[in-house]
């Protein structure tokens, strides 16, 4: 039986493909290579280059892949800032893509999907840590698009016999332990890769966006989740659905927040580099603190975080230092 990985050439998707293969699953990949990298997927994996919004293309894939028992969805756009500039593009790709995917599941009788959702669906959270009961009020088109997708899956699962798990990621970072795949965005905006690019000498310094937040040292606090822990959650979620588990949503984080300055200090320790920094203005749309309460994922999926921030940065550093120009 096959797991079809949608967006399998992207940062998170390529790590899912890697771990699924290592665990003995049969894997096929769909990716339009807009942000993904063909080199991130082994040449032995069945690879379909095309767009999930393209119905004729998707029908072809589902016709060829006769044994799909589950989908993993990693094919959404995911940058908060970009979504504020281009909301229509985000709703088109994310929500539009989701429509075709759900239609294909119905048409070809595919029962399960594990979906990458996000902490951005909570907006400025009403409480911390953030549990599944915390109200979702997104404050940007990216978070809104993922919340709409969660709701589409909920209605579809009520109307048909498909089941889904939505995994709301907090801040994903890190890379495969052997450093052969990792994070390679054309325009990097995330804290840890930018810090490591400074450590490599590819940038002069890191600008920390604001130190007047309501946190201990004044810089924003985020909950970092290791790539391997994250993919483990996907595999556990898929197995849970295959075993007859009900559709559900889980918040995935370590339940531990690190301030931006703590992340910087950890990176200095791991890399042994000075990593020059300066304090800058706030970046619009950044909540003070985002920390997950992942108790529910522990109880229902038996998912537990194994890796801390230091391990995350160690693996990210292995990738960045061995692939300074990405793929
Ligand atoms: N930051 C800096 N300087 C930089 C880049 C980032 O200070 O050069 C700060 C940000 O202001 C923020 C923190 O580092 O305070 C983390 O920022 P990232 O851009 O790395 O990540 P975000 O928290 O903005 O967003 C990420 C994902 C979202 C997801 C969110 C959930 O990109 O998709 O985590 O927690 F919704």
TrEMBL record:
Matching InterPro entries: Epimerase_deHydtase, NAD(P)-bd_dom_sf, UDP_G4E
The alphabetized UniProt keywords are: Carbohydrate metabolism, Galactose metabolism, Isomerase, NAD
Reactions accelerated catalytically? UDP-alpha-D-glucose = UDP-alpha-D-galactose
Enzyme class, broadest EC rank: isomerase
Q: Ranges for the NAD-dependent epimerase/dehydratase domain?
A: 3-253
Q: Which family does it belong to?
A: Belongs to the NAD(P)-dependent epimerase/dehydratase family.
Disordered: annotated span: 272-291
Summarize subunit and interaction data from the UniProt record for this chain: Homodimer.
Quick one: which pathway?
Answer: Carbohydrate metabolism; galactose metabolism
Q: Which Gene3D superfamilies match?
A: NAD(P)-binding Rossmann-like Domain (3.40.50.720), UDP-galactose 4-epimerase, domain 1 (3.90.25.10)
Instruction: Give the E.C. number(s).
Output: 5.1.3.2
Listed GO MF terms: UDP-glucose 4-epimerase activity
User: What top-level branch of life does the organism fall under?
Assistant: Bacteria
Pfam families membership: Epimerase
CDD domains noted in UniProt: UDP_G4E_1_SDR_e
The protein here is known as: UDP-glucose 4-epimerase
Q: Which GO terms describe its biological process?
A: galactose catabolic process via UDP-galactose, Leloir pathway
| Cofactors required | NAD(+)
């Amino acid at each position: 039986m096959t797991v079809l990985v949608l967006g399998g050439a992207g940062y998170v998707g390529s790590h899912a493909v890697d771990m699924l293969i290592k665990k003995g699953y049969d894997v096929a990949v769909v990716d339009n290579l807009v942000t993904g990298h063909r080199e991130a997927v082994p040449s032995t994996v069945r690879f379909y280059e095309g767009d999930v919004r393209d119905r004729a293309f998707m029908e072809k894939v589902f016709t060829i892949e006769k044994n799909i028992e589950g989908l993993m969805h990693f094919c959404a756009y995911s940058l908060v800032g970009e979504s504020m500039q281009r909301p229509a593009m985000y709703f088109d790709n994310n929500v539009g893509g989701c429509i075709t995917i759900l239609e294909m599941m119905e048409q070809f009788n595919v029962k399960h999907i594990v979906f990458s959702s996000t902490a951005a669906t909570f907006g400025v959270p009403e409480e911390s840590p953030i549990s599944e009961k915390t109200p979702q009020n997104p404050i940007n088109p990216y978070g809104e698009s993922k919340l709409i997708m969660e709701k589409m899956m909920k209605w579809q699962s009520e109307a048909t016999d498909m089941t889904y798990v939505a995994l709301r990621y907090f801040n994903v970072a890190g890379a495969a332990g052997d450093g052969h795949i990792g994070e390679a965005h054309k325009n990097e905006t995330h804290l840890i890769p930018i810090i490591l690019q400074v450590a490599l000498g590819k940038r002069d310094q890191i600008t920390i966006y604001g130190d007047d937040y309501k946190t201990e040292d004044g810089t924003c606090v985020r909950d970092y989740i290791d790539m391997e822990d994250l993919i483990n959650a996907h595999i556990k979620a898929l197995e849970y659905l295959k075993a007859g588990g009900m559709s559900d949503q889980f918040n995935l984080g370590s339940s531990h927040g690190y301030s931006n300055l703590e992340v910087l200090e950890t990176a200095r320790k791991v890399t042994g580099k000075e990593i020059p920094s300066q304090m800058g203005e706030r970046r619009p749309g950044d909540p003070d603190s985002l920390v997950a309460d992942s108790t529910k994922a522990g109880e229902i999926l038996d998912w537990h975080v194994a890796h801390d921030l230091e391990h995350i940065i160690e693996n990210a550093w292995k990738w960045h230092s061995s692939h300074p120009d990405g793929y």
